[in-house]
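Researcher: Let's try something more involved. This one mixes different molecule types, so please make sure each is placed in the same coordinate frame as the others.
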Amino acid sequence: MLKSESRSTRRLARWLAYAGICGIAISSAACRHRVTLQEIPADQIETTLFFVGDAGEADPRQVGAPLDSLAVQASESPARTIVVFLGDNVYPGGIPAEGAAEWADARRRLEAQVRAIPPGVRGIFLPGNHDWAAETAFGLYSIRLQEQMIASLAQGRDIRLIPVNGCPGPVSIDVGRLRFVALDTQWWLHSYIVRDSTSRCAATTMGTVTAALRAEVRPPGQGRVVLVAGHHPLMTGGAHGGYCGLTGPYRRFGGSPQDILSGANRTMRDSIRSAFTGNPPLAYVAGHDHNLQVLRGGQNVKFLLVSGAGSASKTECAVRMRESFYVTQHRAGFMRVDILRGKGVLLRVFRYPGTKHGALAYTRWLELR
Amino acid sequence: MTASRFLIALILCAPGVVRAQTAQLPIATEEATPIGALPPMPLPMPASRDQNYWGVRLQTGERSERSGPENLFAVAAGIDYQLRGGSIYGLTAGYQQRQNCQSTTNCGHALFGARGRFNVFTGGPTVAAIIGDESATTTLGTEIGFGYAPGTSPGVNACTLDVGLPYSVAMLQTVRVVGFSTPGAVWNIDCSAEQTSRTRSLLIGFGGGIQQLGARGLDVNIGAQRILRGATGLQFGISVSWVRLP
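Model: All components are placed in one shared frame. Result:
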């Protein structure tokens, strides 16, 4: 009898131990520190950046929620606002030669994005693989045509495509605490000519681009916020990262340089990361995968942002990885980064359609206030 | 829903075939090696395809409801190598002990195992879409494992080969909850001095857990498993694993 009771007691104790561990597990995860949205007084914001990528599949019948909402938010304080389009601005094949049947529609796609930039707001377009004529031989000429078309559509406003003339960059823009560094990552991956007799690029080899990037991410001064942007992500849980779909893990055998698992892509990413060694930027921002992801960057860069959900018709799957802070798949949207005076950088992710709580889906202090 | 609950209850609660009434029930081969001695675990949480990851694992479980008074308690540790954020290869070493063992010998034995788990599909919400969680991740894979336990009885070693089709769904953003099932089959392999019979058994395991518990690499899972053969009872236990992020 005593033996039986003793066994029962031990069993009960064991079950209680299991339950205790599970209880602690659930409660500690649930109580994890959450960054809530804080309404920041406008005068404390030094610079606001909007990041939207892969927006080149605009619906010809309507503006679409992401660009519409972005335009409304950006118009609140135009002087301090920068809108960054993260590449793939014109699907499917960039700007064709004038006279081609696709030319008018390509212009229409680009015009929809330029119009989303309110008066007084600075606009930056980065090149993506589709802008390089979908990775074909016409790529270098297509990207130059896009640069010219954006300048034409801007009508004198500060809206431009960088890096210019099909060059790889990096191109830096300093605004207060912000140093924004733009790269043309397709330059690294393109299989056809990337320069000709009219190219006047400061860096023309992978080594010199890396060296220049290394110098650009070390701006002088204290409290600088370095954000680097390129079309291709350094890490992603989307289709280009080898996830989503049965073929995901095996895409490496296809050898597409557009995918994380390819050798050419790895060379590019390793070079970019090596340039960050010792001076990690606050974030590297990219598009390419059609979803919204906030990721832990690791030693060389603090945060990795993927904001490639600018076209509602192209949104795709994304897998939450160990490095993920936040993932939204199959939703259009954009990211907003507010750089505060003195200290503090706040990230906000907006998605469409939103939830019952609205379009704001995620907030995080990239730099604590 | 009701049908699935009934099926689960049937699997867990169905009595084994014939239950011996002896005080010391022989440990079946399938119970002695890691596949039966330790609780099931879900497929690893996806990580960046850009890198490989090392991890460690602690598992403990108890096989109860065997006929007779003895439960089998096991504890083990393992190391895992997650290749390109997906498939995982692991080695396990542990010890299994009869509880309330009345004998001075044959109360426990070591156990060792090697396992490969291969991600076949890692994608979107699939079934989790039913509850409207668009952040959910579905993972379907295959696995193969080899287990070895020397001296489970005098002169008897246990060796097993198992295959499985693990499936897991991870949900929610703040608390990452994962549910999983691990159906499979296990074969015992003759590796004793004395010839033993070769058998194949089906097994079903399932459980749940929390991923990234406080630390990005820390997962805790509980799992239950039933080997659909003989008086092998019900395995229930907990696994704690940690993956080192570069």
